[in-house]
Structure formats: structure tokens, C-alpha cells
Amino acid sequence: MNNKTNHTTGRKSSDRKAGRSGSSTDSNTGSRVILRAEGLRKYYGSNETQVRALDGVNLSIRQGDFVAVVGTSGSGKSTLLNMLGGLDTPTEGSIKIGGTELSRLNSDQATIFRRKQIGFVFQNYNLIPVLTVWENIVFPITLDGQKPDEDFILKVTELLGLTDKLDSLPGTLSGGQQQRVAIARAIASKPSIILADEPTGNLDSKTSSDVIGLLKMTSREFSQTIVMITHNPEIAQMADCMIRIEDGKIAES
Ligand SMILES: Nc1ncnc2c1ncn2[C@@H]1O[C@H](COP(=O)(O)OP(=O)(O)OP(=O)(O)O)[C@@H](O)[C@H]1O
Ligand SMILES: [Mg+2]
């Protein structure tokens, strides 16, 4: 393993052959790097009890790529995703999204940046219990003073099988339904990056591949970049490329 290596995502040749929409080139080198992490470390605690959740991650992800992050439980996947999305600050290292260095943003600027640029699907969904499904989905958009694209959101919720649940409260939904609401919320604002932590962890295999199909479709339509953690090898295979995390480091695959 060489941790000085800057791991750059690339698409599978099958995708290149298929000619991805929005790409002016069919080579890996043409598309723009949208997300770059350098020397990323996150240490918890100190001395003997110190946990090195991330221990020197260098990573470049190109715009429009669909990246699967895999690795054993506790290897640092969620920590990496939270750092990439600016939800937590690294002990060391830098993260650039587009031209913006996240560490330069103060807390208010970081919140606004996240809301505009990033759609999160959290491991535990993070839905607001007192808001209906529809209100949850449009909440980040209205918070940002924007008008939701209702036709688009209705299409997304239909594809996710949520049409008859739009007026329900999250507490009345099954785990899988709540997970699909979280996915709809992440997609709804058409962010440039979607960071998804086990978005299919609670779904059966048919629904999982439908959801991944939807993510791929919307990401291509809107040139979105997706970084998705998964424990499911079949789901990981549907991504353009895979990053394996081991003990807080990127393992060469
Ligand atoms: N707030 C925290 N304080 C102390 N240790 C933490 C904290 N958050 C995470 N860790 C530790 O960092 C390591 C990486 O955790 P992380 O949640 O990133 O793993 P993961 O790969 O997402 O695992 P899983 O697949 O189980 O979700 C673990 O050893 C975990 O115990
Ligand atoms: Mg995790």
C-alpha cells in the first residue's frame, strides 16, 4: 500500500464505451476533478486510546463519477464521508470541493455551502419527525430560499414508490421507506455532489438496485457526483469505481 498515492477515480471501460452523457471526452483524463482530499487524518482521543479513524487519505473524484466506498465496519468510511461533506473537521489535511477549500469557510458559510452543493443520505436517515414526507424532502430547498422543482420531485418520489406516503409522518413509515425518503431529499435539490452512507442498507435487493438505478439516472442527467458507502458487493459493482478503506487508509485495489 502506498499512502502517498493520490487515488483518482476513473470510470469503467463499459461506461466509456456506452458514452456517458454530458462528457465531451471518452477518456478518464478529460473530466474535471470536483472533490479532492489531501493528507486527510482524523484522530480521536490521545495516547494508547487514540483511534485513527482516518490516517492519511489522498483522493480525487471527477465530476459525474459514481464512486462506491467499501470496507469493514469501523474502517473509517462514515468518517471519510462526513469529512468530505464538511460535517466534521479533519485533524489534519485539506478538502477542496470545486474551487472551495472547506477549512476556509466559517460555520455559517459551511452550512450554506453544504445546502447548495451537497445532498446527504445519512446512515440513520436524519428525517425530521414532525414534518411530513413531502415537507422533509423539500425542507433543505426552502431553507435555502429556493422553490422546489415539484414536477421533478414528484417523478423522483414516484420512482421511489413514495407517492402514497407524501403526507405521512416519518414515524409511521418502515425503515426502508424512511431510507427512500432520505434518498429523495438528497436528490431533490439536484446538488452537484451526493454523499450517501449505506443508502440501500435497509432495502431488499430489488428495491436496492432500483434505487441505485435512480441515483445513476439522475446523476447522469444533472452531472452529479455520487460517493456511496455500501457493504453490498452487488451494489458496489454498479458504481463506476470502488474505493476500499482499511484502517483509515485507502487500500490499493
Ligand atoms: N466521535 C467518535 N469518537 C471516537 N471514536 C470515533 C468517533 N467516531 C468514529 N470513531 C471511531 O472511528 C473508527 C471509524 O468509524 P466509522 O464510523 O468511520 O466506521 P465505518 O467504516 O463507517 O463503520 P460502519 O461500517 O460500521 O458504519 C471506529 O473505530 C470508530 O469507533
Ligand atoms: Mg459507517
| CATH 4th-level superfamily | P-loop containing nucleotide triphosphate hydrolases
- Report low-confidence residues grouped into runs of 5 or more: 13-29
Largest sheet, if any?
6 strands, mixed
Secondary-structure class:
alpha/beta
Individual helix count: 8
Assembly state of the chains shown: single chain
Question: Helix coverage percent of residues?
Answer: 25-40%
- Series of secondary-structure elements, N-terminal to C-terminal: EHEEEHEEHEHHHEHEHEE
Describe the strand arrangement of the main beta sheet, using strand numbers: 7-8-9-4-10-11
| DSSP strand tally | 11
Q: Please tell me the total number of domains.
A: 1
What this model shows, in words?
- There is one protein chain.
- With 253 residues, the chain is of the alpha/beta class.
- The chain has a single domain (7-251), classed as 3-Layer(aba) Sandwich (Rossmann fold), CATH 3.40.50.300.
- The protein contains 8 helices and 11 strands.
- The chain has a 6-stranded mixed sheet, with helices on both faces.
- Strand 10 and strand 11 (249-251) form a beta hairpin.
- The longest helix has 17 residues, at 205-221.
- It is globular, with a radius of gyration of 18 Å.
- The protein starts with 6 loop residues before the first strand and ends with a strand.
